[in-house]
Structure formats: C-alpha cells, structure tokens
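To: structure subgroup
Subject: Chain for Friday's discussion

All,

I'm putting the inputs and outputs inline so they're searchable in the archive.
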Amino acid sequence: MRAAVLHEIGQDKLEVLDDVEAVGFGPGKVKIRVRATGLCHSDISAMNGVLPQPAPFIPGHEGAGEIVDVGDGVSGISQGDRVLVCWLPACGQCPACKRGQSQLCLAGFMNAGTPNFKRPGGDVFGFAGTGTFTEEVVVDAGCAVPIPDDVPFDIAALIGCGVTTGLGAAINTAKVEAGSSVAVIGCGGVGISAIQGARLKGAAQIIAVDPVASRREAALRFGATEAVSPDELADAKQRITAGEGFDYVFEVVGKSATARTAYETTRRGGTLVVVGAGAMDDNLQLNMFELFFDEKRILPSMYGGGDVLQSYERAIALWRAGRIDLESLITHRVPLSEINEALDQMRTGVALRTCIEI
C-alpha cells in the first residue's frame, strides 16, 4: 500500500512509497482504511526533531476513515464503521484517568515506540503510535472512535486533533469568561479553533496575532475582533487594555520566545494558556519575583485539557448547530502523492489546514 515515509529525522520532505504494509493486527486492535487526514504542525515538529519520534516513520495523527477489520476482544466497533483516529486514547485504569484527567493518560504514548508498519528494508513507526499519511493503519481499538454518518471524514479528521485542542484550550483549560479580553498568538488551525472557543464563551475582545496576513484575515472571519502582526501586539495591548494586558493569552506556537511574549501580554492576575507543543531543550525563563508579584496563572493545555471523547461530541454538536465553522478551516486539499506540497503550505503559513485525501 501507499504511505508517506520520513527516512531520517531532519529531512524536510516525505517519500511516497507503495511497498509499505500495516502490521500488528491482532487481539485488541483494529485496521482502518484512512479516507482523510489533516496536516498538523506537530507532524512537522516530529520531522525536524522538535518532538521525539523514532524514525523511519509515517507522520499523520489527525485522520478519519472506515474500519476494515476488528481483532479478537474488541467490542463496540464493527467492520465498516466510520471512525476518527484518537492519537491519545485513555486506558481508563491509570491514576490520571481515574482522576478525570484522561488527556494525561500515558498508555497511548507507549505505542509510539512499537512499529506498526514495515517495508522490505525493515520496520517503520507511525507518528504518535498512529501514522495516518497512509492508506491503512493498525491501531489499538481505543484509537478508533465511531462518528455519526452525517460527519464527513475531513471534518472528523480535524476534530481528532486541531479542533479539539484549540476549542478545549479556551473552554476547558482557560474557562474564558464572558466579557473578557483575549489574545491568541499563532493562528493556524489550532489557534483559529481557540478563537472560536473564546467567541463561544462570550469574550468581548479577541485579538489574533500572526505574521501571515492571510491568517490574520481568516481569524477575523472566525470571530476575532481584531488581527495584528507580532510587531503590532504591544500597541494593541496599550490601545485595547490601557497597557494592563489581556485577561487571557493563548500561546499556540510552541516556542519559548512567543511564550515569554504571551506572559508579558497577560495582565496581572490574568491567564496564560500554553497550547503549542515545543522542544524539550527550549526553556521559558521567568524570575521568581515576577512569578510571585504578577500572580499570573500559567496553564498548559494538553489535547484540549479535558476528556477527549466528550470534547469530540461537543465539537460535533456545535458544528451541527452552526456555532463553529469547521469546513472553512480546510483551506487546501491535496492527494497523498502531493504531500510535500501540503508541507510547504504549512511551513509558509498559507494554509490553516490542508486535507490530504487518500
């Protein structure tokens, strides 16, 4: 079957091969025929080594498709079911799950070190234990979440990662209050979803911050009240908040420099939400006096900061009701054979989300 493979960490292009086989099928597993998958910035971060991932590997973790086969012991899923891929399934038994913090369950991460593909030359890993830039993938049954018939595969794929992450950051993690002021730094698919979440919660001012003009224009269509470049953020802070800072600031880039800017843009007593996935050696510096004196809440948000199954259901309900716009998040579509074009669209910022149709 066809799949897009990164041979070595640090390479900037994928090779689409037709000699890849999905392996590992058996008890507790399902095989999925991937129909649509989104390109998330985390895929690029894994390719360049910012996020740890064994190679060679197949990127992709934001996907949806149909169940091809079901292993022994799997219940609730049948051949032919339409599903989205959950890259961080909850085991339901660990301390994090029992505390109601299933987004912190580590069971899914254990799969990342086990190859779920192979080629004639050897084993191939799937990113985050999945790997959706392929025609078929074998995953734990918990990674396959059934979706209603009225949810298209491309929309379901987005809900599988970017939409859930951004909406949840605003709704679950920050719990944005009505009438508040919000700034979102980084307005790709996740940042735009955070903007939609802040709008749903009734934020009065939502300032979108991004260096790419097309993304700033898009942010206004999704609910931002103003959009500025990074160089204009300090002026917006002064003009809109009289220099005090915003009630909530979302960092959706994953770099210490933007996190530091986000901290400085947050008012005293306000909330900084760290959504971007950054590198282990990229350290954010705060001095102990400002940490104490400013009393700013710093809240990391992992996969939307809440139960992902509930978050999926909420996103579908909001989409059905017309309260969030998911179709317009997909600005580009390419076949798997043109996956490197999708990578360029992500790197240059011209795409909010590119859907790879398989």
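Points worth raising on Friday:
The first helix runs from residue 41 to 47.
The chain has twelve helices and 19 strands.

D.
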